[in-house]
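User: I'm preparing a small set of examples for a lab meeting where we compare how different chains pack in three dimensions. I only have the primary sequence for this one, and I'd like the structure in token form so I can line it up with the others. Please keep the answer compact; I'll paste it straight into my notes.
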Amino acid sequence: MAKKRKMKREPANRNAALKGKLSVVLQWSSDEPVQLSRTMICVIAMAVSILFGILFNNLRFGLLASFGAMIVSGDASEGRLRQHAIDLLRTMLAGTAAIFTGILIGNQNGVAEGWIVVISVLAAVFGGISRPAAKACAQFTIFAIIGTGMGSGGNHPYIISLYFAIGSLIGILVSLSFILLFHSRTTCGKERPSVQVTTKQRLKRWRHTLAQRSGWEFPARMALCMTAAPVIGTVLHLDRSYWIALTVAIVLQRRLSSGTARIFQRGFGTAAGVLAGSLLLLWMIPQWGVLLIVALLAALRPIFKKRSYTIYSMLMTPIMVMMFSMNSPVTESLLFSRLLDTFIGCGITLVLGHYIWPNSRISRLQEAVNGGKSKD
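Assistant: Understood. Below is the structure token output for the 376-residue chain.
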């Protein structure tokens, strides 16, 4: 009797676990209101960048400029106009520097993967200073990996970085103009009250964290995952193994308490994005049509980023494929490689970046209690 009950219980437990993961993938949040201004800014900035690419008959410029405009226009702040301009300029400079660094690394055959490990680990260490530092370091790592993919095609670092910077500058101008014209009385005149923490206090807390074993846990997890990414890519003879590292950089969370929700959402969202991209390949879309589709998908990014990370990942997949395929057409093989590399990256993050660590069991219990919601 006990064995029969156990056998009946096992399928029920598997079904409950499957439903739990499905609910995580389909998770929808309405905690933050939709800011249509961000979408409008992104649409206008990317449309202008694309228009320049069409006018000069330069697909590469249109893609990279629109990518730079998307990154900057999506990084909005709620402070005064001056602070808003400073934040956007920082994003532009950091993104351009990361792209430039990545291209230089990508042009060095045989050692690019090692440099990515070094950059990602250093970013993980210095990101512990504060939440803004963690965000900036994570973005630098992601953009550097993207630049690595661009550099592997023999692209010139100065030209590519210049295109990205021009697009970012277009995004900054559109964003500031939009604020001056439509939100001068609301956005620019208000400032969020916050507790002032000095740089000295942040550095003191950071040094105290690094003096403890737990302070090095995230850099160690990052190093392990980033080292495994090129190794697995080499063993499986994958042409674009840097996509595995990119997936790890995106989904690996600093805190184990963030759980595994982001990993599953990224994997399923990318799969849906690959399917959508494959359908687009059935039609012969002209260059301006492809660029407009990329702009539309990127414009929807701010809406779904805080609401459904699965849909957000689905929208970003065709965009990232376009960024990585400037010198070659988007094919079914390219999309399949993107899907395979993403699943491998998610698997690496799930096992080496989460499950094998001592505190992961506690984090999984917390995730079950919170319904799969991430704190980050």
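A couple of notes for your slides: The chain is about 75% helix and 0% strand. The CA atoms of residues 1 and 17 lie 24 Å apart.

User: Perfect, thanks.
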